[in-house]
């Protein structure tokens, strides 16, 4: 099926069907849902990103719709330490409104915080930002996307003047001659994407992967660079060093389309390949082969993902790779460029419409007077009444319940008890709150701590839009109504706004919210003003920016100019620095985290799907057989991974795919297997990204 059969349909008493997209990752694979009488059947749909493919998570997504763990009534906790009990909606909403009023009267407006998610639709992300700034008047709103794409976003903004994960359609991968993936494992995280890589390989193109582990993606590569975690920046600077010494610089492009190259040239001059080999473990010959493969072909693409980005120097690491792409003249040429593989389902749209601490809709800055005046005009409020910027996600959570932090928190679409770095600390902060509200459709680990839990609709029960990893705005279409007792987040926000203010009501109809979002974004970097649901329905989505209803959208950015004041991309000189927590005698190993094919993010959803549980039943600790022999650990034996912040316990999985100085654990499981009990909360100074991908640990038999 193409996107032409796009609205939910029902003929007579026959089965309904809806052409929609997967609820999970940013590939947003096209799928068709059919009501079968005793459930919902998922079918794959031909869409430009997935071309008829789905992964195991997509095929089984409907298993949660009628799952026994599904919440269909609000839950209330009457006293600290008491049990959650079923409640009516009026009881739950009144309790929240009273709690918010009480906290704000005692501690001021910023004592209430909002925490959103990168899986929320554009309409919800927008409504959440407006609810925080206008209804609650708090500066404290941020979201879990801060822990996904924020380093690539910050690097893209400072180099290109805009942050769109892929500035070109995904199909461009198939047209490249060389694809360099840095810290990305799409063969496991978004398998249908590999169809585009297959196109590249069939045309004779080369895939090069930079990853400390020989992942499923790295095993398919023509060349695998296996650096020590945390040394990608040095590797990127060495590649640029080689390109310069070999005479591969695109001089005309650098002169005409960029600024700031001279300082970068001076900086990378010190990144001698032999020294970078000693630092990173990547052989000089592989560095040369990679530089040559990027620089001596017509079309080359460099992509990053969380492996390169989730570091306390993530912004600078991405910047080093953007510097390399600019020096080779890649951005803006068809089949070439730099991009970031966004992770969460609406990781792109979720960072454009105001649920980030420093941001207003349209990717505007909240400290920009002109942006404040425009958005305040759409919202019908005085610009001076809008709060200023808040703090990034981890700082927001870390301060909860302290004199400088919020005393009440409303969580939508997130499960920080499992997904936050240094998670035990975050859990203790959540327990210190006067009021914790969680909107979710299951009792996630965070919901288990809440004073009020609100049951929300699932993806197959709601209409709205998502923006995929290409910057393509898509339609999410409902197959069926939510179960009795369940509401959408938009309805919840509207009901709370009605209780908390006597001002203009918040709309709860998603189409109406999207139209308002378009007006609020007009003129901003992420301009949706020309996008309507009908326009999306008439094609395979619409790429932003799209300022005019009658004008074109923008599948490819940067063809003629960059959206910077002078139209040029900006080089920034960046230097390698060690991980925030170096290894030492007590903690002699590097620890890194990631995902497995059959689970998704904190696992609150996928751990409940029987087929996915069978495929990936629990956590594990991956370690090299040589390291295991030294530690006296055998395959399947329980081990402890201990850092300065906590420990995880899980069975050992022995593999030569990992370096002997590094151990790996997936982060989908709670409790004793929670990888984020161990991870480091050191933050990137620009993006606020925590250093999920490297810390110092010791491993012992449990
Ligand atoms: S790759 Fe991502 S969007 Fe596609 S089916 Fe899997 S989880 Fe869903």
UniProtKB/TrEMBL annotation:
Gene3D superfamilies: 2.40.40.20, 3.40.50.740, ADC-like domains (2.20.25.90), Dimethylsulfoxide Reductase, domain 2 (3.40.228.10). InterPro entries: Asp_de-COase-like_dom_sf, MoPterin_dinucl-bd_dom, Mopterin_OxRdtase, Mopterin_OxRdtase_4Fe-4S_dom, Prok_molybdopt-oxidoreductase. Residues 15-67 form the 4Fe-4S Mo/W bis-MGD-type domain. Transmembrane segments: none annotated. It holds the Pfam family Molybdop_Fe4S4. SMART domains: Molybdop_Fe4S4. Keywords: 4Fe-4S, Iron, Iron-sulfur, Metal-binding. This is Nitrite reductase. It comes from Micromonospora chalcea.
